[in-house]
Specification:
Blueprint (H helix, E strand, L loop, with lengths): L3 E5 L4 E8 L4 E8 L5 H5 L7 E5 L3 E2 L18 E3 L2 E2 L12 H7 L3 E4 L3 H11 L3 E6 L4 H10 L6 H5 L5 E3 L6 E7 L4 H9 L2 E7 L4 H6 L4 E4 L10 H10 L5 E4 L1 H9 L4 E17 L5 E12 L10 E6 L5 E6 L4 E4 L14 H11 L10
Parallel strand pairs: 3-4, 4-6, 5-7, 6-8, 11-12, 11-13, 13-14, 14-19
Antiparallel strand pairs: 1-2, 1-9, 2-8, 3-9, 10-12, 15-16, 15-17, 17-18, 18-19
Helix pairs in contact: 8-9
Length: 366
């Protein structure tokens, strides 16, 4: 007998079996097309308050490994899969996926027809979803959905609460990273490319950052609507043109907003490791990993001082921006993606070259 189900705002119901926590939640439902990397996905702070539908049918088969977390604080609203494996085969695993969800009070449901569910989200768009017991009536479930408003403070909950450091051997530059819900692998890559990293909370002021005298500033990924994060937008306005800057995902959107461009919500977002992106300047096509609900309006970029550098070949959305004058660039996708693809890792080299190039026509303003 089914013991759990999900209810969507359109009145559709999907029956299944519970794993992890048996808590009832209301979240935004999204889908991910990745075939591997479920641990990195569920521990990515960008999924805060979202219930993830995995389109790949078997999830959990290699377990959970302590070294592979993107964050120790799991904020997702739920996990929906076709089949879950609670007997993984992997010499590195330390616990199972159901154990991880139970430990973090996150509900999961399996046995769901995820093919039909993904098509539903693709056709009708993402919306609210209730994960609940099988005996919850449809009318009761729809009432709970209508009465529950999704929160707008996800970045504040995901960001670190105080400044912290991650140093590397033989550093060649010093970078301040604004944590909007940053993935751990971003810090690893900055270290691997020779950067000492100072991670600061999302609401750190531009004056405080400039007082640290960094060689460069990084704006991280994170959850939610970029327009909700006015603190970071104001910080970027204070520091742009005074220090080289690189943004990823939410950071890309926040840079765009700080220059006067606009963002909008996509119908169902981009999530997965298979999105082709073209670099307009080189013509090179990269296969990228993505995770976002919002995009930059290409028509709003004109006249802001930014230029479009990359576009998505599936729907022509903006995937990259730059300003040579201010030494600023950003991408919507994840060059640090783990377990992959790794086509875009060169962007960290570009950032390091930008902050260390002594011949560049760039005057640091105090």
């Amino acid at each position: 007998m089914y013991n759990r189900k999900i209810i969507l705002e359109d009145g559709s119901e999907y029956m299944g079996y519970g794993f992890g926590s048996d808590r009832e939640t209301v979240s935004e439902i999204v889908f991910n097309t990745s075939m591997v990397g479920y641990q990195e996905i569920v521990s990515d702070p960008s999924y805060t308050d979202q219930a993830i539908v995995m389109s790949y049918p078997l999830i959990g088969n290699y377990g959970i490994t302590d070294e592979d977390f993107e964050s120790r604080m799991l904020g997702l609203g739920g996990l929906i899969v076709r089949e879950v494996n609670d007997s993984p085969s992997n010499f590195r695993f330390t616990r199972t996926l159901p154990e991880l969800l139970a430990d973090n009070d996150i509900p999961g449901i399996y046995g769901v027809d995820t093919r039909k569910l993904v098509r539903n989200i693709r056709d009708k768009g993402s919306g609210k979803v209730l994960i609940t017991d099988a005996d919850t009536t449809l009318s009761e479930g729809l009432r709970k959905l209508s009465e529950t408003e999704l929160r707008h403070d996800a970045v504040a909950r995901c960001s670190c609460k105080k400044k912290w450091y991650k140093r590397t051997a033989n550093p060649i530059c010093s970078v301040v990273a604004i944590d909007c819900g940053m993935k751990t692998n971003i810090v690893r890559e900055l270290n691997r490319h020779g950067c000492n990293v100072t991670v600061v909370p999302y609401n750190t002021s531009g004056e405080e950052i400039l007082a640290m005298n960094p060689d460069g500033v990084f704006i991280s990924n994170g959850p939610g609507n970029p327009e909700d994060v006015s603190e970071v937008i104001e910080t970027i306005k204070k520091i742009r043109g005074k220090v080289p800057m690189f943004g990823i995902c939410l950071g890309h959107q926040l840079i765009a907003l700080s220059y006067g461009a606009k963002t909008y919500k996509l119908k169902f977002g981009h999530r997965g490791g298979n999105h082709p992106v073209r670099d307009i300047r080189t013509g090179k096509i990269e296969i990228t990993s993505q995770n976002h609900s919002y995009a930059v309006d290409d028509k709003s970029v004109d006249g802001t001082g930014l230029k479009v550098s990359h576009i998505n070949l599936l729907d022509n959305t903006v995937e990259g921006l730059y300003s040579d004058e201010d030494k600023v660039f950003s991408v919507q996708y994840h060059p640090e993606s783990s377990p992959g693809p790794r086509d875009s890792i060169y962007l960290f080299d570009r950032f390091v070259k930008m902050v260390t190039d002594k011949e560049a026509a760039y005057a640091k303003k105090k």
